[in-house]
Design goal:
The complex is a heterodimer of chains A (about 160) and B (about 775). In chain A, about 30% of the residues lie in helices and about 15% in strands. Chain A has about 160 residues and is of the alpha+beta class. Chain B has 20 helices and 30 strands. Chain B has a 7-stranded mixed β-sheet with strand order 3-5-1-12-9-10-11. Classes of the chains: A alpha+beta (about 160), B alpha+beta (about 775).
């Protein structure tokens, strides 16, 4: 018989943590239950990207992963990116650029962009689209999100690689 | 005058930072689900698997005894009170044809019974134990079937009714009918050199905000029901929940936190009555969030409408007659049916000079998903037919379609009989156009797209053929003599202000717009405003965020509230300066004497009024209703490339111009326009409901494709300001109009590329290819 409770241990935003869970609990549900509510439920089907978190640096849909699939791995959520006093560079561009409308998709966008910036050295439009295509937005037409991201990426590409 | 005024603005007409952008970009708790405690009961609903059936029996006894189950609701244990789920003016111009639970189901996704349990799994397990015996009835899937002699009657209950005197014949599946005439339509058709009679079909589509429908409810310590819900209409929600549960309005508080998008879908009360009833029954906090499948199947949709356009034109370009017959499929329930079809006429026909007008709108029930409010609200559907026909007319008389539109569109100072003839459930309001920058829109759009490069389709060859299309559009701003918005504003010791708005920011940026308007009036800065919207216990009334009313109507309420507070600030400031109030003025958050040599700050004025002498609360209130609904205007242009081998359309460039009066926040206006335009493009090219026996089969973003970042074509938004004297600092509405453009503009571009004229969308490759082949076979 399937056990009704279990534990899962993983590094969450840099801190080793152990949580009670159940074998069928989704990572998104665990995170939100534990107070990490920046990742949003949008579809539960792995199609909208509102629940995007990083698993070992890769952007993943937390609504599809079982919590126990994170065992021993590194999970990062939007709570690890920026503060009210000092938003991240991309968050600041989103804020200044009028790119946040309802905002429901934005944490997921930020996490996908984080994965992009950490994994790639060059950011041509095609690569950026590849990373960002899994995050749907219905408010903005993506225009200002794209422009905000492009400003950040262009600055990074212009900067010497040592400063990245 | 207008240019002089806009030059002096310090807060409005500036792109100040959106007040909630920072918390949202950081993912801080903001939305309904973010505030729900872990121990909340979870609601799950048993939905009808049948499009049309009578419930012969339900047995919930086993479900009630399942582990974790705290309550089950079904038609046998809740009040049967007819109501309408649409949040509209009250009494609504829509039938009261809905019950919390009924003995009949009318579409796949209709309510049967609900469970509240400790966990989602327990609730779902209990649903599986509810025994329902259905008597299947013949379903009605098209408006032709609905209106046929002897058709099955979808609403055969004897207690449904309309709360205001409007035509309602449920025995004929007729939800509403509205018509209007001006001049002599038939005579106009006879006077034309060319006449047109074409029928256009628009599809089911959904808003799909990324936050699904979500609501929670709890009982406070005094036993009142506190509902926190993702809504565009908190005050309507309170009234409708009170009505549906049979409890006083006094017993209910509705809180709207940040909202994850709505676009009209959340102008509907689909969850709030259930969470409220469960909270009453269990005394627990109750949470219900739709899955994406539920959002697609049970959530509201855009009404599919059949639009027959009959029109006549003379060789010189004079429009002699325009007639629209719009048949609206509202699905299983009638909310918004009449008003959406009314807007097919009222937001479309006045755009062009024409003396002879015919309009007939009919709304039918079917056993399909329920139509509701959706950005554009009927105008979107009718413009597809209208702007396609305008292009056909221009071609018939050999005139450039841009010049033809420029010759015929309505101008400042002009009126149109349809403004007076068509309202929402009653006659409309006569109105003259006070502001219109449509010619500027045409000029700037023309230049941006390079319209002079457009050539006739007959000269085009090869596999990939390029084409250009355009169209012009209008909408409204508020519903005159029906909508009302209120605001209040009070000062704090540091010269900051609490601005309490009934207006409902659902991601649009309206809190920011209200802050800018209040700050402009008060001669302070928008960052001094602590905006709170909306909460039925705390904020003044507002009908909510719909009908393009927030900036124009609620913004004026905020301006009036600020003006009221300003009068008090001036009085106290004058007292502190020892001067008569006539001799002081406000500037830069201070009250000054005439020559500017002495001043007191708003903070000092607040401290004086609150603590020091002749104490009182400086607090302003304002409310507003409108006498007119000034239209924003837009001209849209597209250049596309059609693959004539596959029928695939690639948009090379899309230009949206917008005259929204004064753009209170230009960056947010652009954002609204870009978002609505891309939504419209997605609607025109890919979005559709696929049915099997009434069941929507593609209920996921994998199968119902909305445009992603990869799909986004180059979009260019151009704001073309005008000045609307009746709006706050010259503003009109911005958010709805932009979605009207893409379907007709792309249809016109497809024609210009290939000679194929499409009468229904989405313009899937299959449809486009079939139309291209039909043209080639006729050659």
């Amino acid at each position: 018989m399937t056990p009704t409770s279990a534990t899962v241990s993983f590094t969450l935003n840099g801190e080793p943590q152990t949580f009670f869970t159940t074998p069928n609990e989704k990572l998104l549900d665990l995170l939100r239950r534990e107070g990490y509510r920046g990742a949003k439920f949008g579809c539960g089907q792995g199609t909208c990207g509102a629940c995007t978190v990083l698993l070992d640096g890769r952007a993943v849909y937390a609504c599809l992963l079982f919590s126990m699939q994170a065992e021993g791995r590194e999970v990062r959520t939007i709570e690890s990116v920026g503060t009210l006093d000092k938003p991240s560079e991309f968050q600041q561009e989103l804020i200044d650029g009028g790119a946040v409308q309802c905002g429901y998709c934005i944490p997921g966008m930020v996490m996908s962009a984080t994965a992009l910036m950490e994994a790639e050295d060059h950011y041509n439009d095609e690569i950026v689209r590849e990373y960002m295509d899994g995050n749907l937005c219905r408010c903005t037409g993506y225009e200002k999100i794209w422009a905000a991201l492009r400003r950040v990426l262009d600055r990074r590409e212009a900067a010497p690689s040592a400063s990245r | 005058m207008s240019t002089d005024l806009t030059n002096t603005f310090k807060q409005v007409n500036h792109s100040v930072t959106k007040v909630d952008a920072r918390q949202l970009a950081l993912g801080r708790n903001s939305y309904v689900a973010d505030f729900v405690p872990n121990n909340a009961l979870i609601v799950k609903m048993l939905w009808s698997p049948h499009p049309h059936a009578r419930i012969k029996s339900i047995d919930v006894s086993k479900a009630e005894k399942m582990p974790g189950v705290k309550a089950v609701l079904w038609h046998g244990n809740v009040p049967r009170i007819p109501h309408c789920t649409a949040g509209q003016g009250f009494p609504e111009p829509s039938p009261y044809d809905t019950f919390m639970f009924d003995t009949k189901v009318r579409f796949v996704g209709d309510r049967v019974a609900a469970v509240a349990a400790e966990t989602a799994e327990q609730a779902e397990a209990a649903l599986a134990e509810i025994q329902v015996e259905y008597e299947l009835l013949q379903p009605v899937f098209t408006i032709d079937e609905a209106m046929a002699e002897g058709a099955p009657i979808i609403h055969d209950e004897d207690d449904a009714y309309v709360p205001i005197p409007i035509p309602y014949e449920p025995k004929k599946n007729l939800v509403a009918r509205v018509s209007a005439e001006a001049g002599d339509f038939e005579k106009g058709m006879q006077e034309a050199d060319f006449t047109f009679d074409d029928t256009y079909e628009t599809p089911y589509a959904q808003h799909t905000p990324i936050e699904p429908y979500t609501a929670s409810a709890t009982l406070d310590s005094a036993g009142r029901i506190v509902i926190t819900t993702s809504t565009q209409v908190p005050f309507h929600s309170r009234r409708i929940v009170a009505q549906t549960l049979g409890v006083p309005v006094q017993k209910i508080r509705v809180i709207k936190p940040r909202i994850g998008g709505g676009f009209g879908s959340k102008q509907e009360v689909l969850l709030d009555d259930i969470v409220a009833m469960f909270a009453l029954r269990t005394g627990r906090t109750v949470f219900w969030q739709f899955t994406r499948e539920e959002n697609f199947r049970t959530g509201r949709t855009r009404h599919p409408i059949r639009v027959r356009v009959r029109a006549g034109v003379k060789k010189d370009g004079t429009l002699t007659a325009i007639g629209l017959d719009c048949w609206n499929n509202t699905g299983a329930y009638g909310g918004h049916g009449l008003t959406v079809v009314s807007c097919c006429g009222s937001k479309v026909l006045p755009l062009y000079h024409c003396d002879n007008i015919h309009f007939d709108g009919k709304v039918f029930y079917t056993n399909l998903p329920v139509g509701g409010a959706y950005r554009g609200f009927g105008a979107t559907q009718a413009y597809f037919g209208m702007e396609s026909t305008i292009d056909k007319m221009a071609e018939a008389i050999g005139m450039d379609p841009l010049d033809f539109r420029r010759r015929n569109h309505i101008q400042v100072g002009e009126s149109h009989p349809i403004f007076a003839a068509l309202g929402e459930g009653k006659e409309g309001v006569p109105m003259a156009i006070g502001s219109c920058a449509l010619d500027d829109c045409l000029d700037k759009g023309n230049a941006e797209i390079g319209w002079q490069n457009r050539t006739d389709w007959r000269g085009k060859t090869g596999r990939f053929r390029r084409g250009m299309g355009m169209g012009i559009f209008m909408q409204g701003s508020s519903i005159p003599h029906i909508d009302m918005g209120g605001a209040s504003i009070k000062i704090n010791e540091d010269g900051s202000f609490n601005l309490l708005c009934g207006a409902t920011d659902l991601g649009t940026g309206s809190d920011t717009v209200m802050a800018q308007i209040a700050a402009e009036e008060l001669c302070t800065t928008a960052d001094k405003m602590i905006v709170y919207s909306s909460d039925t216990d705390m904020t003044p009334f507002d009908v909510g965020a719909y009908a393009s009313s927030t900036t124009y109507l609620s913004g004026e309420a905020a301006r009036k509230a600020a003006a009221d507070a300003k009068r008090q600030i001036l009085k106290t400031g004058a007292e502190m300066l020892g001067l008569p109030v006539e001799d002081v003025h406000c500037e830069d958050a201070h009250v000054w004497n005439a020559d500017g040599s002495r001043k007191v700050s708003y903070g000092d004025i607040a401290c004086y009024a609150l603590y020091q002498k002749n104490q009182y609360q400086i607090i302003g209130t304002g409310s507003h209703f409108t006498e007119k609904a000034p239209p924003p205007f837009a001209a849209h242009f597209a250049e596309i490339e059609v693959d004539t081998w596959t029928g695939l359309i690639k948009i090379l460039k899309y230009v949206s111009t917008i005259d929204c009066g004064t753009a209170i926040n230009p960056l947010l206006c652009e954002g609204q326009t870009e978002g609505g335009t891309l939504n419209g493009i997605s609607y025109a090219l890919t979005e559709q409901y696929l049915f099997r026996n009434g069941c929507m089969m593609n209920a996921s973003f994998a199968d119902y494709h909305i445009f992603s970042m990869r799909d986004k074509p180059p979009l260019k938004t151009i704001i073309c300001p005008s000045y609307e004297d009746t709006g706050p600092f010259g503003a009109k509405s911005v958010s709805e109009i932009c979605i009207n453009g893409p379907a007709p503009v792309l249809a016109n571009a497809i024609y210009n590329a290939t000679g194929a004229r499409l009468y229904e969308f989405p313009f899937t490759p299959e449809k486009v290819l079939a139309a291209i082949r039909a043209v080639q076979q006729n050659d």
